Amino acid sequence: MAPMIHTANRIQGKFSATAFALSLSFLAFGLLSCNPQSANRSQTQTSGKPNVVATSTILADLTAEIGGDKIQLKGILQPGADPHVYEPVPADSVALEKAKLIVYNGYNLEPGLIKLMNAAGIQAQKLAAGEVVKPLQLDKGQGEVVPDPHVWGNVKNVIQMVNAIRNALITLSPEDKQKFSENAQKLTQELQQLDTWITQQISTIPADKRKLVTSHDAFQYYGRGYGMEIFGTLIGISTEEQPSAQTVKKLVDSLKKSGVPAIFAETTINPALIKTVAQEAGVKLAPNQLYSDSIGAPGSDGDTYIKMMVANTKAIVTALGGEYKPFQPNQKIQP
Fold it and tell me: What are the residues whose beta carbons fall under 8 Å from the beta carbon of 128, sequence distance 6 or more?
């Protein structure tokens, strides 16, 4: 699937016919833009670098790796924030209006921000980076099938996303093509090593223990990519959902018969209910939470996409009886 890059249409404002109202409009226009010549002018004119906005922390990390010091990058969500339920604030609208390129996941991962992007009348190019990946289709019940947005769970998918981000940045700033290409190639090589490493680590888990139970259904790509059965979740792909008492009971009953040694909480979701499930089912709650929709806070073991995937794999392997070996990418690889 080709990257979804397009330019939003400008929303034309309505101006009063009176000269007094017109003068007030121009005054407000100048105050909002901090520049009398343009209401949507980015920092490109002052820093020489194009403004790029990334919605999720995962996309911000990947874009920073590829763009380096050639772009002015703004990430909207903070580490630990849940994109499914995030409510935009006025500063987000300002950031989007200043952007020359917006990198977002798509497949309705960040519905609040997608709605804002489509309503803001911004001039930016848009890249739905997650939508370059052919999605898994998940049944929400009652015949409703939706694309699973958690595409980054399989590192091979992220390599496709890296290529799409690189191409979008080259379109934005052709003079920096070489740097973007070098950065993307270096990142891709490390991702290829990570993909192989995850496969090797998961293979050490006894075959009958390769069952993953989490708070919400965010690990289908990981499971299918690396040989893990997604045995159960409390809620579906969106954290907006609330589990019913029947769902909780059904999961508890299934766990009692499953032989699953541990289940997992997630960093972006309150762990109280999954703790209750573990207690009632008589299974262990893994000591380390999984990073699902966000990387970790700066200084944590998951503060980049690669470190997040390493931390998740370590947590899964050690809790389910495998033999974890540290990830050691080849530092000698040159772009």
Answer: 3, 4, 104, 105, 106, 107
Q: What count of residues does the chain have?
A: 335
Q: What is the pTM of this model?
A: 0.83
Retrieve residue 148's tokens.
């699973």
What residue has token string 């009063």? 16
Could you tell me if 149 and 108 are in contact, meaning their C-beta atoms sit under 8 angstroms apart?
yes
Can you tell me whether residue 243 is helix, strand or coil? coil
Calculate the average pLDDT of the chain.
85
Phi, psi of 168 (to 5 degrees): -65, -40
> Which parts of the chain fold into alpha helices (H)?
19-33, 44-47, 57-67, 90-98, 111-119, 155-172, 177-202, 220-226, 245-258, 272-281, 305-319
For residue 290, give the DSSP letter.
B
Query: What value does the mean pLDDT take over residues 110-127?
Result: 88
Tens digit of each residue's pLDDT (9 = 90 or more) over 95-114: 999 999 999 999 999 999 99
Report the C-alpha gap between 80 and 292 in whole angstroms.
Answer: 9
13 vs 175: which has the higher pLDDT: 175
pLDDT digits (tens, 9 = 90+) for 33-44: 333 333 333 344
Type of residue at 75: G
- Residue 41 contacts residue 123 (beta carbons within 8 Å): no
Report how far residue 25's alpha carbon sits from residue 22's, in angstroms, rounded to the nearest whole number: 5
Q: Which of 106, 226, 219 is nearest to 153 (CA)?
A: 219
- Decide: helix, strand or coil at residue 54: strand
